[in-house]
Automatic annotation (TrEMBL):
Protein name, as recorded: Succinylglutamate desuccinylase / Aspartoacylase family protein
A GO molecular-function annotation: hydrolase activity, acting on ester bonds
Cofactor or coenzyme needed: Zn(2+)
Organism annotation: Enhygromyxa salina
Key words of the record: Hydrolase, Metal-binding, Zinc
Length: 342
């Protein structure tokens, strides 16, 4: 009998990235005007000195185009365990040709260095950096970092893309969080071509809210799950950044926005009222009807102790992937879909 051969599994192509070219330039401030047009730079930006006297420096990748134009800022890993944005920044920035770029791209690949090294969301003092804007003079370490980030980075950009993932134990599709009252931010979200757009006015304590207070259009892109690298999502994020640059006419072939992704005008989480082993039924981006079963929780004897149904007709924006669920666990993030003309 003739054996049937099994095709080898597909493997991802390695990204085109440069070889190490020496140490970055250490700077205490971001002076974009001093950089020559048509050049790229790896910078280590000093933010503050920790209690042991060590400087905390963050990696800043700058490409200054040969032609004048807007400054596009990109941030990743303000939560230290949200990793998919890091290679997206690398691949987008290294894929730019300074000689053919209009304007300047400033990418921070890892905002939260202590959290990144500790594999956790918060800073060295465990505080959430994205809840501390605009920072505070004479405050805690995390407040000082945020104050310096705002002064030394945020005030230098004209547009901002903030890259995130879901929180610990959860997962998201690729979606954009915007404020529908800010048309320029909505256009950034559409240009990135996400799976959907969620209307969520930003808290002033977040990076997106701080940008809004300065009049800087900003979109948050949610990119999958934390503490992993997901190649397909990294590729989509990289392409999304390039599309945003084209939309801003920083690259040749300006982008026509064309079709718009599904829009949620509001969203909310369903929380568990019981503890146990959680099973969530719908997939990400599934459409669910009001009253449809979406999850149950069983005890350690395999008996159902909690059943959960969709409180309204919705699309699944996010879900918990960790089956060990204490009381109060976020189960499913549901969004209400609306037409764009509403």
């Amino acid at each position: 009998m003739r054996a049937v051969s099994t095709p080898p599994p597909l493997t991802a192509e390695p990204p085109s990235l440069p070889k190490h070219s020496g140490p970055p330039t250490i700077v205490s401030s971001l002076d974009l005007d001093s950089l020559e047009p048509g050049t790229r730079h790896n910078l280590h930006l000093d933010l503050f000195r920790d209690p042991a006297g060590q400087q905390l420096r963050i990696p800043v990748l700058v490409v200054k185009g040969a032609e004048p134009g807007p400054v596009l800022g990109i941030t990743a890993a303000i939560h230290g365990n949200e990793l998919n944005g890091i290679p997206a920044v690398h691949r987008f920035v290294h894929g730019l040709d300074p000689k053919r770029l209009r304007g300047t791209v400033v990418g921070i690949s890892v905002v939260n260095i202590p959290g990144f090294l500790l594999r956790r969301r918060g800073f060295s003092d465990a505080r959430d950096l994205n809840r501390l804007f605009p920072g505070k003079t004479g405050g805690t370490d995390s407040q000082l970092v945020i104050m310096r980030l705002r002064e030394q980075f945020l005030t230098h950009v004209n547009y901002l893309v903030d890259l995130h993932t879901a929180g610990p134990g959860r997962t998201n599709p690729v979606y954009a969080r915007v404020d529908l009252e800010d048309p320029a931010s909505v256009e950034l979200g559409i240009a990135a071509r996400p799976d959907l757009i969620v209307n969520k006015p930003a808290s002033p304590k977040t990076l997106r809210g701080a940008a809004r207070a300065l009049g800087i259009p900003c979109v948050t892109l949610e990119l999958g799950a934390p503490q992993v690298l997901q190649p397909e999502i990294v590729l989509r994020a990289t392409k999304g950044l390039r599309r945003i640059a084209r939309h801003l006419e920083m690259l040749s072939r300006p982008l026509g926005l064309g079709g718009r992704p599904p829009l949620c005008n509001e969203s909310s989480w369903v929380y568990s009222e019981h503890g146990g082993l959680l099973e969530v039924f719908p997939d990400l981006l599934a459409r669910v009807r009001k009253g449809q079963p979406i999850a149950h929780i069983v005890n350690l004897f395999g008996e159902i102790v909690g059943e959960y149904k969709a409180p309204f007709k919705a699309i699944v924006i996010g879900k918990t992937a960790d089956p060990v669920a204490p009381i109060g666990t976020r189960i499913v993030h549901l969004g209400k879909l609306v037409p764009w003309d509403e």
